[in-house]
Design goal:
Shape: globular
Structural class: alpha/beta
Pfam family, one: Peptidase_C13
GO molecular function, one term: GPI-anchor transamidase activity
CATH class: Alpha Beta
Family: Belongs to the peptidase C13 family.
Number of domains: 1
GO biological process, one term: proteolysis
CATH architecture: 3-Layer(aba) Sandwich
Keywords: GPI-anchor biosynthesis, Signal
CATH topology: Rossmann fold
Helix content: 25-40%
Length: 356
């Protein structure tokens, strides 16, 4: 083979190699804003859960088991304790009538202790009040309130609000002492929307006449499900003979059965979840409200509310970061010679004295 032919072959190979290396950059440079938006489909960057048991006393054991079971499921699917507000009576595990102290079970077989070793209750006992619940939602807590008791959501947060207890037409009782009305709840969600405290919100309630609790909602981006229609009771599932009380409600039982089959990367949708517990299982009629929600529930992943996402938002503009100069007592240009100071040592701040 002659030298010119070898030269031509080498040149051709170099051109092909350059095209191959530059192709990704050519594609990236032609990426439109719409394509970037397609990458960031869900529109939210973080997940929160507010889980509330509004009742107390031993005969309401099942309500504590309800909320702790949902708590266990959302933690398993990825929502950390730092993003969960748990409000529960917390008087079942240590109740003198409990034959197995420090445990709460949601099944007569007692396979899973939903109280566990890592339950972080934010509001317990008499802290579970209508005032505290509304203040948590709206962010109007006193300055002295610990950070762990705050719902630190923003306009990119998807929030799951789960409530269980005893209710009636248009109200839900708290601790048999007070009640929150559907109007108060609707206004609290509207305050959240006005203050940009959520992107989308899923409201889930398991109580008698539960449908009445979301009938007054008027804020956008809210999807809601209730365990019973107005005029219907929401029933318990089964009794644990060792405890002598019902251990879980029917709707929550079948909802958990669905959630237990999901994994953090699950493709199950909210549309599928809204169909759990048909009337032959629940006896009551499950009610759903979707008119305020902007997306098709069949296209919304279950993990958009019950899991946790860490989406990265792509920006088209360049962010200018200020230069940060670190001071050091150990080195300077004069003491280190003429070489440019590339790294400087940092000093720890004074600490409290620690015992040896």
């Amino acid at each position: 083979m002659s030298a010119p032919m070898i030269y031509q072959k080498i040149t051709k190979m170099i051109v092909i190699l350059l095209i191959f290396l530059c192709a990704p950059w050519l594609v990236l440079s032609n990426t439109s804003e719409e394509e970037i938006g397609e990458f960031f489909k869900s529109g939210h960057t973080n997940n929160w859960a507010v889980l509330v048991d509004t009742s107390r006393f031993w005969f309401n054991y099942r309500h504590v088991a309800n909320v702790l079971s949902i708590y266990r499921s959302v933690k398993r699917l990825g929502i950390p304790d730092s993003h969960i507000i748990l409000m529960v009576a917390d008087d079942m595990a240590c109740n003198p009538r409990n034959p197995r102290p420090a445990t709460v079970f949601n099944n007569a077989n007692q396979h899973i202790n939903v109280y566990g070793d890592d339950v972080e209750v934010d509001y317990r006992g008499y802290e579970v009040t209508v005032e505290n619940f509304i203040r948590v939602l709206t962010g109007r807590l006193p300055p002295s309130t610990p950070r762990s008791k705050h719902l630190l959501s923003d306009e990119r947060s998807n929030i799951l609000v789960y409530m269980t207890g005893h209710g009636g037409d248009g109200f839900l009782k708290f601790q048999d002492a007070e009640e929150v009305s559907n109007v108060e709840l609707a206004d609290a969600f509207e305050q959240m929307w006005q203050k940009r405290r959520y992107h989308e919100l899923f409201f889930m309630v398991d109580t008698c006449q539960a449908q009445s609790m979301f009938q007054r909602f008027y804020s956008p981006n809210i999807l809601a499900v209730a365990s019973s229609h107005v005029g219907e009771d929401s029933l318990s599932h089964h009794v644990d003979p060792a405890l002598g009380v019902y251990v879980i409600d029917r709707y929550t039982f079948y909802a958990l059965e669905f959630l237990e089959k999901a994994k953090p990367g699950s493709k199950k949708t909210m549309g599928q979840f809204l169909k759990v517990c048909p009337k032959y299982q629940c006896i009551s009629t499950v009610a759903v409200r979707t008119d305020l929600f902007q997306r098709d529930p069949n296209q919304v992943l279950l993990t958009d509310f019950f899991g946790s996402v860490r989406n990265v938002e792509i920006l088209l503009n360049t962010l200018a970061l200020p230069n940060i100069t670190l001071t050091s007592d150990t080195c300077s240009k004069s003491s280190c010679g003429n070489e440019e100071v590339s790294s400087r040592s940092l000093k720890y701040a004074d600490q409290f004295p620690m015992p040896v």
